[in-house]
Structure formats: C-alpha cells, structure tokens
Design goal:
This protein has 279 residues and is of the alpha/beta class. It is built from 6 helices and 11 strands. β3, α3 and β4 form a beta-alpha-beta unit. The mean pLDDT is 91. Bound molecules: uridine-5'-diphosphate and manganese (II) ion.
C-alpha cells in the first residue's frame, strides 16, 4: 500500500477519536452542577415559598433602573462622604424599603483587616445598589484583630453567628472587601443554590477562573449555609477556604449558579498578595 494511504488511514482514526473525545467532554460539561441563570429568577414564585405576605406586597425590581455603572477604583473617597451620600442608612449599616416588602432579609458579611481604602469604595458602591434593588439588608464588617495570618473562613462563620444576635437573616452574602460590582442587575439575593455573584472579575479578564470557583462574592440561604456546615475554620493565610466551601456545596448536592458574565462583572481594587495558607 502506498505510504500516503497508510497515513491517511491512521489520521482518520485520530480525527475520529478526537471527535468522540470532544463529544464525551461536551456531554460531561452539560451535566455538570454549574449553571448560569438570569437575575430575573428572583422574581419567580419559587423564591416566595414560606412567605408571610401576599405577592403584591413584595418589592418588584425595575429593570430599567438597573444599569451598568462606571467604577473608578482610583478615586479617593472618605467615610464621611459615604455617610453624607447615604443618609437613609441607619446606624449599624441597616436599611429596608419603606413602601414594599423585600423578598429576603440579607446580611452582607465582609471579612476585613487593614483595607480601609477598599472598604470605603465598597460601601459607597453597595448602599445605593442595594437600595435600587429594594433589598432589606444589614452590612457586617468582620475585622480580625492581632497579627496572626488572616482567616477568611473563620471570619465568615463568626459573621453568621454574630448576625443572628441582631436579626433573622434569610440570605448571607460573603463579600471580599476589594470587589466592586459593576452591574446593578447583579441581584444581591439568594437562590436555592450556592450563587457565585462574582462570575467575571476584571483581574481574571472577566472570566471564571475554573468551573467550581466560588471565591470573591457568594450568596446562599441560611438553611443551605447550615446544611453545608459553613466555611472551614482551619485555613490561616491566603487561599483554600473558598475551594473547600465550594467542595462542601458540591458534596451536599447544591448546584453552583452564576449570573452571566456581562452581569456578574466586578472590578478589583489593587492590593498586594498575602502568603498562601499552610494547609
Ligand atoms: N482580607 C483583608 N485583609 C487582609 C487579607 C484579606 O481584609 O489582610 C479580606 C478582604 O476582604 C479580601 C479577602 O479577605 O478581599 C480576600 O483576600 P485577598 O483580597 O488578599 O485575596 P485575593 O483577592 O488575592 O484572592
Ligand atoms: Mn482580593
């Protein structure tokens, strides 16, 4: 047989195997536990289960009012300025809509140490955003004292415990201090899954780093937080607690949902990287 026919025969099998490989891969990805959902799922009746009010009492989201915002991460603001710009906010970082009932009572949990510049930027962005989304909320800043390596996971757990002393929250949003949401349509509420709100961070060229990534900003209900047994407490220093959290959700069979990337956009305020945790 001529050599060229032999080569052709062989390459045929290579092409066929590649074809089968990509089909199988697509099938696996298709059945994965991650899905992109539009924020309007929050208007659907499923979220009203166990609600104490009739549907007409609830705040409706006005989509035209929710737009992509220009975020300048280099601007210099002061805490006083943020306070003056948001006179509606009560002491303790509390706000609730007056004319309608919020779908959920949301606790924003921010792990924090020595990043005042970031915190001011975040508060300046979050207060008006949450008002525009008609969400009843309270902001909790969990500040780690002392000089031991940072323990983000433990601060989140403490945040949930402490918040229970001040109110009953349906939904927890765990929020890095340095991430500023760009789109007002990124709704700060919980669905019945682990919702990864930061689906597109500018530092990561506006793409998710890897399929199960659940870092930066995530939302889940109080009952799902309990079900997955919260965050791990064992990681001191940078990293691992978010991947552990996502693994906990996976083995509890929670799906991971995300807003589409053009909505889940965040700008990250610049900072130095800390040392990776030893675990
Ligand atoms: N953080 C903080 N001070 C620190 C280290 C971490 O406030 O010294 C908080 C802060 O909310 C930050 C989050 O932990 O956004 C995650 O840490 P970092 O931003 O360093 O992680 P990376 O963005 O590199 O994943
Ligand atoms: Mn960061």
């Amino acid at each position: 047989m001529a050599v060229w026919i032999e080569v052709l025969m062989k390459s045929k099998y290579v092409i066929l195997s590649l074809y089968i490989f990509f089909w199988v891969k697509a099938l696996i990805l298709n059945s994965s536990s991650v899905s992109y959902t539009m924020p309007d799922i929050f208007q659907k009746s499923d979220m009203l289960k166990g609600a104490r009010h009739t549907i007409k009492d609830y705040c409706r989201l006005i989509w035209e009012d929710l737009q992509l915002q220009e975020i300048n991460i280099y601007a210099n603001y002061s805490l006083d300025q943020v306070e003056q710009e948001n006179p509606q906010v009560q002491p303790g970082g509390v706000w609730a809509p007056e004319k309608c009932v919020s779908f959920q009572h949301v606790a924003i949990i921010i792990p924090y140490r020595d990043r005042l510049f970031h915190l001011i930027h975040l508060l300046r962005r979050l207060h008006p955003l949450l008002r525009r989304q008609h969400i009843e909320y309270q902001v909790f800043v969990l500040e780690q004292a002392g000089g031991t390596p940072f323990n983000r996971g433990m601060l989140m757990n403490i945040g949930v415990k402490e918040s229970a002393k001040l109110g009953k929250f349906d939904c927890f949003i765990f929020h890095d201090v340095d991430l500023l949401p760009e789109h007002d349509r990124n709704i700060y509420m919980c669905d019945n899954n682990l919702r990864h709100l930061a689906s597109a961070i500018d530092e990561m060229r506006y793409h998710v780093m890897f399929e199960n990534y659940a870092g930066g900003v995530v939302a889940l209900t109080e009952s799902n937080f309990k079900k997955i047994n919260g965050y791990p407490n064992i990681y001191w220093g940078w990293g691992n607690e978010d991947d552990d959290f996502s693994a906990r959700a996976k083995i509890t069979e929670l799906r991971l949902t995300r807003p589409p990337e053009y909505i889940g956009r965040y700008k990250m305020v610049k900072h130095m990287k800390a040392e990776r945790s030893s675990h």
